[in-house]
Amino acid sequence: MSTVVLDDVTKVYPGGHLAVDRLSLRAENGELLVLLGPSGCGKSTLLRMIAGLEDITSGDLWLDGRIANHLAPRDRDVAMVFQNGALYPHRTVRGNIAFPLEIAKADPALVKERVTELSKALHIDETLERRPGTLSGGQRQRVAMGRAIVRQPSLFLMDEPLSNLDAGMRTELRMEISSLVRALGVTTIYVTHDQVEALTLADRIAIMNRGVLQDVGTPGQIYNDPATAFVAAFLSSQQINLLAPQVRTPQNEYILLDFGPHQITIPWTDPRAYAVSQHTGGHIIVGIRPDALAPVPDTFDGPSFHGRVRTLEYHGHEWLAYVEAGLPAVTVPEPPDPRAAGGPAAAGATGGKARSMMRRLLSGGAEPEPETPPETNGQALSGTHRRADLIVRLGSRPVWRAGETARVGIDLNRLMLFTSEGNRIDPPRR
Ligand SMILES: Nc1ncnc2c1ncn2[C@@H]1O[C@H](COP(=O)(O)OP(=O)(O)O)[C@@H](O)[C@H]1O
Ligand SMILES: [Mg+2]
Question: Which residue owns the Cα nearest ligand 1 atom 11?
Fold first, then answer.
């Protein structure tokens, strides 16, 4: 049993590469915490620092209430499983799982009992006398897990253990990992880049981008109430619609989100109204998942867009529609890459930088004020100057036809509102 606390932890690799940037996070006793983020965001680096395989550049790691920065890996009581759980090829499955106990000179009767018990839990009891070379990928990962957990570590670390398996095996083993670590009650930190894995497995998810922690919460909290546009987009199973309206407050009667060809009003009674009104005159980012949009009749007088249905896409369990509504779309705003500058992370974009980033993000050029010339280094923001289609989830029936003009109703409660830097305007409570 163990708690893990990361306090303002930074990792700079030799050569100056900033891989983890002032990250603070806590894993509770017995919790299954999933570290989620795109490839290269620093997940493995963080896990390896917890395991003691990588030095911590600055900040503190606490294991079970004690500073652990300088503890040797073997003194941390931590077990780790990697993507390619390497096994001893000349030992049987039984020999592989028993190995850590044999090294610790455990009583042979106890070894036998533990191996039998674990191999049953992992559904590899039929393979105990076989060599790893004769096993499937899924079976090999089960053996690697058995070997890691056999000495009952206080902390179990898994780095993308399912990434090399085919889809069916991934789902099966995912469920088994979930029940195994919960049955053992061992604190587990599980790394993945797969949002479905994270949502299905986690007690809580910590989501990272470019070495920076973006959000932490239960799957429901961070899916429904994400802290940043990055989190909203990363956790969306269908691509999220990100739009960039201007905020106006005509005669102070209501708040108008002005998308150019379309407007949406937000009444003052909306709990987010005051926070949004602080952006009057400026642009914000609105995130709308495709399932927060729905076909409505042309007579609908609630919040809606209209446009031409360009194409319909069949996804088996649902249809998606791509609607040309003349809306300027943006991509997820990224902070300037601190690694490109070679220094430690700057404290977010400055106002001027954020404005010019916003100008480049905006495709419609609703406000073509010429300021400083656009930055050309770093960010790959080309390709964002477009009027993207609105993606609408239709459910199991394609109620529209390609080419027709359609009205799209908007679930106002599910509009997510972000600043131009991508932070929530009405911060979620955690
Ligand atoms: N030993 C190393 N030396 C220098 N840079 C590294 C080293 N290991 C990883 N990196 C870099 O640090 C960043 C984070 O890597 P990593 O933690 O492996 O990401 P993830 O596991 O999220 O894919 C990447 O840009 C990677 O190239
Ligand atoms: Mg990794």
Answer: 19
Distance CA 70, CA 49 (A): 10
CA pair distance 286, 39, nearest whole angstrom:
26
Query: Ligand 1 centroid vs 211 CA: distance in angstroms?
Result: 10
Q: What is the mean pLDDT of residues 341-347?
A: 41
Lookup: tokens for 75: 């003194």
The residues lining ligand 1, judged by C-beta closer than 6 Å to any ligand atom, are 13, 15, 17, 19, 37, 39-45
Q: What are phi and psi of 132, to 5 degrees?
A: -55, -35
Distance 37 CA to ligand 2 centre (A): 10
Q: Name beta bridge partners: 4.
A: 27, 63
Q: Which amino acid belongs to residue 135?
A: L
* Distance from residue 420's CA to the centre of ligand 2 (Å): 30
Integer Cα distance of 90 and 88 in angstroms: 6
The full set of domain ranges for the chain reads 4-225, 241-418
Measured from the Cα of 20, ligand 1's closest atom is: 14
pLDDT tens readout for residues 295-323 = 999 999 999 999 999 999 999 999 999 99
Nearest residue (CA) to ligand 1, atom 4: 13
Closest approach atom of ligand 1 to CA 43: 22
Structural class in CATH, domain 4-225: alpha beta
Residues 6+ apart with CB under 8 A from 171: none
Tell me: the pLDDT tens digits for 220-239?
999 999 999 999 999 988 89
Q: What is the pLDDT of residue 230?
A: 95
> Collapsing DSSP states into helix, strand and coil, what is residue 94?
helix
Which atom in ligand 1 lies closest to the alpha carbon of residue 54?
1
pTM over 0.90? The answer is no
Segment 372-394, tens digit of pLDDT? 333 333 333 333 445 679 999 99
Instruction: Quote the ligand 1 centre to 10 CA distance (angstroms).
Output: 13
Ligand 1 pocket test, pick from 20, 44, 84 with the greatest ligand atom count within 8 Å of Cβ, gives 44
316, burial (CB in 10 Å: exposed 0-12, middle 13-18, buried 19+): exposed
Average pLDDT, the chain: 88
Q: Is 244 a residue whose pLDDT tops 70?
A: yes
Tokens standing for residue 369: 């004020």
Q: In this structure, what are the phi and psi dihedrals at residue 81, rounded to the nearest 5 degrees?
A: -125, 135
Query: Could you tell me the pLDDT band of residue 360, with boundaries at 50, 70 and 90?
Result: very low
